[in-house]
What we know:
The protein has helices spanning 6-14, 16-19, 28-37, 53-66, 86-98, 104-113, 124-133, 204-218, 235-243, 260-274, 285-298, 313-318, 334-337, 400-405, 425-447, and strands spanning 40-42, 48-50, 160-173, 176-187, 193-199, 223-226, 247-250, 340-345, 351-354, 357-360, 369-375, 380-385, 391-393, 396-397.
Amino acid sequence: MTLIHPMALFRLSVLGPLAAREVLARGELKRLLRELASRTYVEPSGKSVRLAEKTVESWYYAWRRDGIQALEPNPRVDRGHSKIDLEVQTALLAAKREKPRRSLNTLVDLMERQGRVAKGSLPRSSVHRLLKAHGLSRPTGAASEPIERRRFVAAHAGDLWQGDVMHGPKIPVAGRLRKVYLVSLMDDASRLITHSAFCTDEGALAIEGVLKQALLKRGLPARLLIDNGPAYRSASLQGICARLEIRLIYCAPYEPEAKGKLERWHRTVRDQFLSELDLRQVRDLDDLNARLWAWLDQCYHVRPHSGLEGLTPLARYQRDLLRVRPLGALTAHLDGLFHHRHPRTVRKDGTVSLEGQIFEVSYELAGERVVLVVDPHRGQVVGVENDKGEALGRATPLDAQANLTRKRRRPSAPAPEPTGHGPNAVELALAQQHAALILALDDDQEAL
């Protein structure tokens, strides 16, 4: 399975609100570009960046034209120029328009902190001339526009899923009390919970596990709306959604109104499930989840919902079953899609390391760049691939003691070259040497 470049996944996540729209109304593209350019993002390297509208727009059209491959970075060829780069100009103008009272020093410092220019390489005079040419050299201090928020609902089941995490109770886990977290995915149109489970953490692996079960039970959504937290921005989750053609949308930070349906679901869980739950009878995590799933099937999914014109979530979902995108042939390959992939270089002794553990691979791969394929839910390395997704064999944990007595494979000795039947130079020289010795002995005997 071909690796997707981390920057391509990052750029696709930035395009989430745009990529999720099949059709854009007049003026909507410009508004969304302005909104996306106003946010701060964290690149795969961990660096916080701001993006220009033109940059986001170019990514959008490239993605529409050629897919996610078009979002992979190209080597820059404009380093070393003394003039302000066009992209930096765009970023400077956007930063000034965003906050008109920003001074020249603030703008220069902002570009340096974002990594757009090297420290000390952007003259204040050049920035001033740029702002003056665009009529932005004087601060205006215009009041900011209010954020427009509107209630929405997906037209059909499977059009949009929403995901979020709720802090849960403390229960016995491995012999001690631990806090658990409820990870849930909801179908927006029907309010049906495609899957929900209590987990021991709220990290990316827990979210991926819930998503996998939801796909097996309810098919493929067209879009997935999730929180803006680090766990939801993991490269593995973004890669899974990209391969399944699920458009990933991130909520804007500090805007809980975008997840109103899930907030209502969490309140239902607290009021109707947790309030009725006798924690003294909960033995472990599996027991708690068994009770949750029974309550979902027997109570929540079959109870009329006020937001569904009196329909139950299950009935509303079943009304659109023919519109839901089935897994189909992907079912057999779903485990592989959820595997994590870690690029590694094979050492000279045919080993690679992962999270402090050493694995042996085929010795012929020494010095090669490979990809370790890991089943994160079982914690096992399941194989080795090249960067094109082609299998290269197994990876087994290193057993150094067994290697002490293991018979080494050595290169086979080269086959002897055929001698033939005719004379050769060495044999002729040897015969001549023998003849000379015999002649010398004959001469000595005659002299006696």
